[in-house]
Specification:
Number of strands: 16
CATH topology of the largest domain: Rossmann fold
Order of helices and strands: EHEHEHEHEHEEHEHEEHEEHEHEHEE
Helix content: 25-40%
Number of helices: 11
Largest sheet: 9 strands, mixed
CATH architecture of the largest domain: 3-Layer(aba) Sandwich
Radius of gyration: 20 Å
Strand order of the largest sheet: 10-9-8-11-13-15-16-14-12
Shape: elongated
Structural class: alpha/beta
Strand content: 15-25%
């Protein structure tokens, strides 16, 4: 099979910096995150006889060669690659006969793919900051397994999946759909629901009291977490990680580099929400909470989500995708999710 392999080298670079995406960052901001995720996913192609059509240099060529492939370069960017290069590379892959587009990036990259290939099957390797779209595997390892099954089987099952992106103000927008591999390890699109039930408000009030009693607490992104931050300080970031000391806002929209120094030697509480429709706890929009930060916090975290959100998840588990497979395995287990005043549901945490 001829497979289009397109990598956005900047994907995910904005997450540790507390940015809400990576658009506009120069190539010197590339962290190697996307390349590492791409290399993990390429393992699924070993022994399948797939021929890779790809972009020059960090857009796929370098990674494919390092993995033992002899790719055909169909597009070379004139400088640091942009979204337009991603779209051009996908178009060139199709012109060269690609039967499936295998891309590495986030929601912005999914939009670039949509612009060039609205009718060709795709599989996204999650490497961006948000990844609300339904075209991604849950992790690079899941992408590898999906590719292996799809390319070695007689048929490729596909489903129309949403391409969704979030604006800087937090608004979630549907940009279209793409035919995506329809295997169980494909993540669902983020549900744009507003949890405003009285039970959830009671859970938020209880947790607010716990945060006020804690010397230090990290609170993650999301609408439920924003309601908690507002209850504590009257403000806080919707899409960022904030640090509170005895309920007072200490650091707003913290970066991954800032957090170890802020934490110091005293392990803080951590409060997280759940990504609706997907079930992600870590690895989607909260990359500030990297492995080095997670090693310093109290575990398990305090988790808040409505019972309706948990019931609507595609599988009865919360997912973690920190970029460290060994850490993901260590975080697996059962945790309480607070759904109301003195109410909780037990949920399993799984590596994505």
């Amino acid at each position: 099979m001829r497979l289009g392999f397109v990598v956005n080298p900047l994907a995910g670079a904005g997450g540790p910096l507390a940015l809400k995406g990576s658009d506009g960052l120069g190539l010197n901001a590339a962290t190697g995150w996307a390349a590492g995720r791409a290399a993990l996913a390429l393992k699924g192609l070993c022994g399948t006889g797939a021929h890779l059509l790809t972009g020059g240099g960090p857009m796929g060529e370098d990674i494919a060669i390092a993995a033992g492939f002899a790719p055909t370069v169909v597009h070379r960017p004139q400088g640091p690659s942009t979204g337009a290069d991603s779209t051009a590379c996908v178009a060139a892959c199709l012109a060269a006969g690609a039967q499936l587009i295998f891309f590495v990036g986030g929601d912005g990259t999914a939009r670039d793919v949509l612009a060039a290939a609205p009718d060709v099957p795709v599989l996204g390797v999650p490497a961006g900051v948000k990844m609300h779209s339904g075209v991604f595997a849950t992790s690079p390892g899941a992408a590898a397994a999906m590719l292996g099954k799809a390319l070695c089987g007689p048929n490729i099952d596909i489903v129309e999946a949403e391409v969704i992106d979030r604006d800087a103000d937090g608004t979630i927008r549907l940009h279209g759909t793409l035919p995506a591999l329809a295997l169980p390890s494909r993540q669902a699109a983020k549900a744009a629901r507003a949890d405003a039930d009285a039970a959830l408000a009671g859970a938020i009030a209880e947790v607010a009291a716990m945060v006020r009693a804690a010397p230090l607490c990290l609170i993650g992104p999301g609408l439920t977490m924003h309601r908690l931050k507002t209850a504590l300080a009257g403000k806080g970031t919707l899409l960022g990680v904030d640090v509170f000391a005895h309920g007072e806002l200490l650091v707003e929209d913290a970066t991954q580099a800032q957090l170890p120094a802020v934490i110091g030697d005293q392990p803080p509480l951590m409060v997280l929400g759940v990504v609706g429709g997907q079930g992600f706890l870590l690895g989607r929009g909260n990359q500030q909470l990297g492995p080095d930060v997670l090693a310093r916090v109290l575990w398990p975290p305090i988790i808040i989500a409505s019972a309706a959100k948990l019931a609507a998840l595609p599988r009865p588990a919360l997912l973690v995708d920190t970029g460290d497979e060994a850490l993901d395995a260590r975080l697996a287990g059962f945790v309480q999710v607070r759904t109301g005043p003195r109410q909780a549901m037990m949920m399993r945490i799984d590596a994505a």
